[in-house]
Amino acid sequence: MECIELGYARIITGEDGKVEYAEDIYYPDERVQYFLEEVGLSFYLDDMKFKENSEILIVFKYEEMVYTNYFGTEYDENIDIVHEQILDENIWDEEE
Question: What domain of life is recorded for the organism (predicted)?
Answer without folding.
Answer: Bacteria
